[in-house]
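Q: Could you fold this chain for me?
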Amino acid sequence: QVQLVESGGGAVQSGGSLRLSCAAAGYTYNMGWFRQAPGKEREGVAGISGGGSTEYADSVKGRFTISRDKAKNTLYLQMNSLKPDDTAMYYCAADDRVRVGWLPLTTTYYTYWGQGTQVTVSS
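A: Sure. Below is the predicted structure, expressed as structure tokens.
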């Protein structure tokens, strides 16, 4: 079992920055960030493999950076140049094994989920 706790969400103005953190308890291999806005499906934002490779949704490329500190077992999402369209509940996700054909931005490739942290960007 893996427990994930997100933090760092909040309200910012357009163009601002936030850094989300996800503290994990238990072994994690692949990890990712997802978001869900009201009335919309959950979508992948960024993923990072156990080997350190990363992938981003087109909508956040160049603005968001995913990273992890394995010693602290913590995942981060640095979000810059935030836009109102980035407003959503952000969720941390993790898996504890190697997956063949892993798709970092696909929800079904993750077993464990956090409770989410709200990000609100005003214009």
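A (continued): DSSP finds no helices and eleven strands in the chain.
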